[in-house]
Structures are given as C-alpha cells and as structure tokens.
Amino acid sequence: MNFKERDRKHLWHPLTQHKLHPDHLPIVKAKGVWLYDENGQRYIDGISSWYTCMYGHSHPKIISRVKEQLDVLDQVVFSGFTHPPAIELSEKLIPLLPPGMEKLFFSDNGSTSVDVAIKMSLQYYFNKGNSRKRIVAFDNAFHGDTFGAMSVSGLSVYNGPFENFLLTVDRLNVPDKTNIETVMKSFRAMLDSNEVAAFIYEPLVQGAAAMHMYSPDHLEILIKMAKEAGVLTIADEVMTGFGKTGKNFASEYMTSQPDIICLSKSLTAGVAPMALTCCSQKVYNAFFDDEISKGFFHGHTYSANPLACTAAIAGLDLLCSHEIQTAIKTIHQRHLEFERYIKNHDKVKQTRVTGVILAMDLDVEMDRYGTLRDRLYAFFMEQGVFLRPLGNTIYTLPPFVISNSELERIYEVMEKSLEII
Ligand SMILES: *Cc1c(COP(=O)(O)O)cnc(C)c1O
C-alpha cells in the first residue's frame, strides 16, 4: 500500500469532508520555502504552512538549537517547576511586545490561547466581584475551533451543531469608511449594558475572512471606547504576530494597546505547537491574592515545553536580525509592485496588501468551497506552488526567506491562474 492508501485507512484530517476529498498528498520533506512530495515533486510554500514557518522550513539556526536542547531537557511539568528556555523566552519576548505586556501564560495552539484569554477576562471580573457575561467580537472573525474560540468566531457556517452550546457573544461589524458611525453606535450600546467583559479582535487583518484588511484608525477608536468602558481588550495576533503585517505585531499600528495578546502560529517558527496568552500587570493583579480560588486554574500538560520554547527563542533571534527585517520590507515593496501591475486585470475585483500579505479577489461568483476553488488549488499545485484560495480570494503570505525568483514564481502563477477562471 502506498502512503495515500495507508492514510485513508486510519487518519481523519482537519477541516475535511472525506467523502468528497479522500486523498491527501504525502509530503515527505520540507526545506526553506520548499515542500517535497513522495515523488520528488516540489512546491513553493506560498502560505508558510498556515503562517507558521516564516523563516523557512528546517532553518539550520533553529534546528541546531532545538537539537541541543533535546539533549539537555526534553519536557518537564510547568507547575511547581520552571526552566531556562521558558525564562529566556519571556526575557526576549516581553521587550518586543507592545507596551504594557508583563506576563506570559502558555498553552498549545491558537485556539487555546484565545480560550485562555476569554477565561482570564471572565475571571478578571468574577474576582473583582463584578461578574460580566458577554464578549464582543467582530462579524467574520476567526479565533479558532475550541468552544470559547468558536463562540467568538463569526464564520459560523460549520458551527451549526454547536450553536446552542456557545458563549454569549455580541457581534460587531468590521468598521470601514462607510459604516464606522453605525459600528460605534452599536458598540456604545453594547458597552452601556455594563455586561461586557472583553472585546476581542484580529488587528488589521482577518485571516480566515479571506485576508480582509481594515484600518488601524478605526480599530483604535473601538479599542479606546472599550478601555473607557473598563472592558478588557484582546488582540488575537495568532496570525498577525511576528512581522507579518510589516511591524513585529499588528498592535503596534495603534497607540492604544490591548490588555491581552494571543500568539501562536509562527511563535515557534513552525517547529512545534505552542501558544502564549500575554497580559498586562493589571490583568495579572486581579488573580494575585491570598485566596487560592482567585488564581487561574487552567493548565495544559505540555505548557512551556522546553523544545518549543527553544524554537521560539531561535525564531525571535531571526525575527530581530537585520536580514529578516530587511526581507520583510522587500517582500512588502514587491507585493505593492505586483499589486499595481495586477489590479487592473479584468478578472481581478480587488487587491490588498498589508506587510507580507497580498490578497486578490477574483471577479467571479462562487461558494467558499466551490469547484472553482478546487480547480485553482489543483492548478497552483501543478505549477509547483502551494496556495490555498479562500473562496474567490487568492492570497500569499510567503516565508520571509523567499528569494526574488521564488516570489516572482508565485506572482506568475497567480497571474496565470486568471486564465483558467
Ligand atoms: C489560526 C488562528 C487561530 C487558531 O489557531 P489554531 O492553532 O489553529 O488553534 C486563532 N486565531 C487566529 C487569528 C488564527 O489565525
């Protein structure tokens, strides 16, 4: 039996209707921006394996440090114990984070980092004897697939079976020039209820909503309103964190800073699953008490795994390097050039760029997972480029280490794909 057949026997893949999509391409190796399949075909990883491997796959500087760590300390319980990789990570990351972040809470993935943020917010008010039950989140938000994260996510087409079991969430339209007044008005009404514990948002770019981009000025207004109403603000930077928007964190585009920031995806440079919920001293202080029950009794077995922490430290060193900071600017400039070139194509409805993220909407009607999407996906793979269209949006979020010619290849294939629609 080959890999595909063996896969079909026992494996259940994420986000998949197996009856319609039985086959999964076996990838046996990855290096730099390239993914290699079992037949030796290679594909440019045009979306950095869901925004994780931003320094390329198996970066030698990351791999060597993780291997070293593996010989020293592989895993240890993080309640009652601590260890150098976690400490070093905190000392490296806190100065890079937007001002006000003081404490780091570990978990395993983006969804759990959001669940932790929500639990922190709810218990923050509970501990203060002023219970608040509601969360405000954007329409079309995506914050993950666990119950808390799913509750605040707005892309609910697939949440049908769970709708009766979700948290109480008020939905806010994502602001733009035309609706900002209305959005402020509805937000004001929500805040005036004095029932809102937290406002959660993906700053600047809503990844799963087909890389929808919105203005930092509008977001700033909403963050300020929340803060004035004493509502905790949660920036879900699971996708936007670590340089993707052109700054290390998207929150840096605003002057008002969140109380809580969620991080995962490229936190460990794509080497291991790990997440952080970072918070301000103010949040932490609400839990710091003589009473044991005011503590935050949430924990995951692999919290702060030393190997994952080591990968994160090595990733941060790369992020801060001159080479990567320059690469981020270069990719951004080249995206803008390509955008200028492609935006008037008659099959292109709209284009947008933030940092290293480039998206274009096709001028066709189709379902989110319709057949055109599958045809486009197949076309990209045939051309040796891994891109995953979201509905009628084609986008790329390439690894920072991509070369000029590899990036050119992505643009070329994007342009060519317009001929098959
Ligand atoms: C991917 C993502 C999540 C969920 O992270 P997982 O690791 O897949 O659970 C949450 N929020 C945002 C903004 C994301 O992009």
From TrEMBL:
UniProt-annotated binding residues for pyridoxal 5'-phosphate: 110-111, 236, 300-301
Cited SUPFAM superfamilies: PLP-dependent transferases
Record field: transmembrane: none
Site location (Participates in the substrate recognition with KAPA and in a stacking interaction with the adenine ring of SAM): 15
Binding-site residues, substrate: 50, 265, 299, 388
CDD domains hit by this protein: OAT_like (cd00610)
Molecular functions (GO terms): adenosylmethionine-8-amino-7-oxononanoate transaminase activity
Entry-annotated residues carrying N6-(pyridoxal phosphate)lysine: 265
Cofactor(s) the record lists: pyridoxal 5'-phosphate
Pfam families listed in its UniProt record: Aminotran_3 (PF00202)
Signal peptide: none
Family indicated by similarity: Belongs to the class-III pyridoxal-phosphate-dependent aminotransferase family. BioA subfamily.
Quaternary context: Homodimer.
Name the UniProt record assigns to this protein: Adenosylmethionine-8-amino-7-oxononanoate aminotransferase
Gene: bioA
